[in-house]
Write a structure and sequence with these properties.
single chain; 3 helices; alpha+beta; 12 strands
Length: 153
């Protein structure tokens, strides 16, 4: 995404005052948001992926707060994404809007690679309850043969 596209997207969200199915807003004005792992997993499991927008506070009437440190935020998001199996690789865009620095992280839909057979597969990642996992390698297969994102131990 280009900075001009990020600016246009932010303006549309602030005007409409709502998120979309493929867009998640995070304030990030005082540090890296918690629960990023869930959002990264969700978007990588979703057809078409999604976009995380940092620097908008939806609880405060979609006010632009800006981010605390664009470089540090990108580093910390990337570090969380690298802990996933398969690895999620966010694509970042930084833009200044009304004097505030905003950051977007585009999360692509995961391309599935079967770790057991070392071949591509058409299976999609499916969130499954922890009780349904069959123990094994770092990536675990659920009983219905769908793959699940898990942190690397």
């Amino acid at each position: 995404m280009l900075p001009s596209e990020l600016t246009e997207l932010v303006q549309n969200i602030v005007t409409m005052k709502c998120e979309h199915q493929n867009i998640e807003l995070k304030r990030a004005s005082q540090g890296t948001p918690e629960k990023l792992y869930d959002t990264l997993s969700s978007f990588s499991n979703q057809t078409g992926g999604g976009i995380i927008l940092f620097g908008i506070d939806e609880k405060n009437d979609f006010a632009l707060t800006g981010v605390y440190d664009a470089q540090d935020l990108q580093t910390k998001v990337t570090n969380q994404a690298l802990q996933m199996e398969p690895v999620v690789r966010p694509v970042f865009t930084v833009a200044s809007i009304n004097g505030k620095t905003l950051v977007s992280a585009e999360i692509a839909e995961c391309d599935i690679f079967d770790l057991l057979t070392k071949s591509r597969t058409c299976r999609r990642y499916t969130p499954m309850p922890a009780t349904s996992f069959i123990s094994g390698s770092t990536s675990r297969r659920s009983r219905n043969s769908a793959w699940c994102l898990l942190p690397i131990s």
